[in-house]
Specification:
Blueprint (H helix, E strand, L loop, with lengths): L1 H16 L6 H7 L2 H24 L15 H29 L83 H5 L11 H20 L4 H5 L24 E4 L2 H12 L3 E9 L7 E8 L4 E5 L11 H4 L5 E4 L3 H11 L6 E3 H7 L7 H9 L19 H12 L1 H15 L5 H14 L12 H9 L5 H21 L3 H4 L2 H10 L3
InterPro entries: 3'-5'_exonuclease_dom (IPR002562), Exosome-assoc_fac_Rrp6_N (IPR012588), HRDC-like_sf (IPR010997), HRDC_dom (IPR002121), HRDC_dom_sf (IPR044876), RNaseH-like_sf (IPR012337), RNaseH_sf (IPR036397), Rrp6-like (IPR045092)
Subcellular location: Cytoplasm; Nucleus, Nucleolus; Nucleus, Nucleoplasm
Family: Belongs to the exosome component 10/RRP6 family.
Length: 511
């Protein structure tokens, strides 16, 4: 049941991602009567299914009754209430399951040797007659008892309630020098002795001006000037000749775990015209999240970097990551750009996002899975998409899964550029649009989650529930306690206290 449900949810998510985006795109499709009628039919069908589920659990289920429910907010409230009831029952059943299975082996795959790790009955192979292909099997891999990688980091993770300051100390490929405030000497500088030689009022004014300028420099994007003045090299704006990827079995794959290996990789990348890049991130057992793995592929080799082991040394890759002559190819880079800044102080100049290319080409779907099938006839294996990437040593199957994300990406990069060239009537206009959109993504800055006295209101408004004064006060205090505990213990807020449980405690006000 769990396997079927997870597979269905994944399929539904993929299908929803293929729908027209809100705004002009949706309005355009909405102008066609056939599309409008289809949307209304499917909408009624979805509401009917939701009503059946809610009715089964004994909840209010008048989702389609327009005489009883006239406001969208009322429907949303009804849905939230039903979810609370269902999740509460799920929690009870999970507790029962945990009690029954309390003495079982801890959940930690040791090389994923048979028998496969069992999280739920859906992950147990019932027999030869019920075998499934790997791509049809989903695994919720979470290692409960691994050593926390944060304990080995040279620099302590900064979960303080202060704005994020770029981790950059040296700025390779600079057109504009790194602000003094970001250099090591600038961060360590104390009061300036020359202030002692001027009147106090003037010294205060000078200090205020310096502080204001320092804050602007410290919180600005270090490569904003370089990105704003970047133009794609002429060579990438011409019609490409797609270069077929090497068979994965014939391509060397290197697992990078030492500084010497990382330096050697950087030297290899310096000689490339382009390379593909991807990250594997973990957010459940860390307040800000951890980038656990980096995958890089050139035309001839694949590399997987243990970023937990080399976290403090990753900044040397800025030499290639910010080189405007080298194309960095990513797919859906919005989060990757922020994770690179947050964990390693890495920035991208000259990046091409194949997701943006797929959107501009109006492909039916924009996911990497779809592009792999369309251009490479490769079925993406998503069985490890929910894996805990902190696990060490990494099982061979997980390494293979991570490798697949970049191995084919340079060929896809060639194919989408070829399609964009043809779509632009053999002019580079469409290619320039994708590079501009990719550049805009590179300009994104990582913003640290900050707590304030009114932070709880955002979550409260999303819940669409009404709490009285006493309940709201409890909700506010619980929200503050959860944030403080998560920062102190370096855990996600969802791990410390999930949203639905926080709301339930505030509602019940246990004594």
């Amino acid at each position: 049941l769990a396997q079927h449900a997870l597979g269905t949810v994944v399929a539904a998510t993929k299908a929803s991602n293929g729908l027209p985006q809100p705004g002009d795109e949706y309005d355009f499709y909405r102008s066609f009567p056939g599309f409008r009628a289809y949307c209304e039919t499917q909408g009624d069908r979805l509401l009917h299914c939701m009503s059946k589920v809610m009715q089964y659990h004994g909840c209010r289920s008048h989702m389609k009754d327009r005489s009883k429910v006239t406001e969208l907010e009322d429907k949303f409230d009804m849905l939230v209430d039903s979810n609370d009831v269902i999740l509460e029952r799920v929690g009870i059943l999970l507790d029962e399951a945990a009690g029954v299975n309390k003495n079982q082996q801890p959940v930690l795959p040791a090389g994923l040797q048979p028998p496969q790790m069992i999280i739920s009955s859906w992950n147990r192979k019932a027999g030869e007659s019920h075998k499934r292909t790997q791509s049809e099997t989903f695994r919720l891999l979470h290692a409960k008892n691994i050593s926390r990688p944060q304990l080995k980091f040279r620099e302590k993770i900064d979960n303080s309630n202060t704005p994020f300051v770029p981790k950059l100390f040296i700025k390779p490929n600079a057109l504009k020098p790194l602000p003094e405030a970001l250099t090591k000497s600038g961060r360590e500088r104390k009061e300036r002795p020359e202030d002692l030689d001027v009147p106090a009022a003037l010294a205060d004014f000078i200090h205020q001006q310096r502080t204001q300028q320092t804050e602007q420099d410290m919180f600005a994007h270090p490569y904003q000037y370089e990105l704003e003045h970047f133009s794609p090299p002429d060579g990438v704006l011409k019609k490409p000749e797609p270069q077929m990827y090497r068979p994965i079995k014939e391509t060397p794959c290197h697992f990078i775990t030492t500084l010497d290996e990382l330096v050697e990789l950087n030297e290899k990348l310096m000689k490339c015209k382009e390379f593909a890049l991807d990250l594997e991130h973990h957010s459940y057992r860390s307040f800000l999240g951890l980038t656990c793995l980096m995958q890089i592929s050139t035309r001839t080799e694949d590399f997987i970097i243990d970023t937990l082991e080399l976290r403090s040394d990753m900044n040397i890759l800025n030499e290639t990551f910010t080189d405007p002559a080298i194309v960095k190819v990513l797919h859906g880079a919005d989060s990757d750009v922020e994770w690179l800044q947050k964990d390693f102080g890495l920035y991208l100049v000259n990046m091409f996002d194949t997701h943006q290319a797929a959107r501009l080409l109006n492909l039916g779907r924009h996911s990497l899975d779809h592009l792999l099938k369309l251009y490479c006839n490769v079925d993406a294996d998503k069985q490890y998409q929910l894996a805990d990437w902190r696990i060490r040593p990494l099982p061979e199957e997980m390494i293979q899964y991570a490798r697949d994300d970049t191995h084919y990406l340079l060929y896809i990069y060639d194919k989408v550029r070829e399609a964009l060239w043809e779509r632009g009537n053999e002019q580079p206009t469409q290619l320039q649009i994708v590079w501009q959109r990719s550049k805009d993504i590179c300009l994104k800055k990582y913003i640290k989650p900050l707590f304030s006295d009114v932070s709880y209101l955002e979550l409260y408004r999303r819940q669409k529930k009404h709490l009285n004064t006493q309940q709201l006060a409890a909700f506010r205090l619980l929200f503050a306690w959860r944030d403080n505990m998560a920062r102190q213990e370096d855990e996600s807020t969802g791990y410390v206290l999930p949203n639905h449980m926080l709301l339930k405690i505030a509602e019940e006000l246990p004594k």
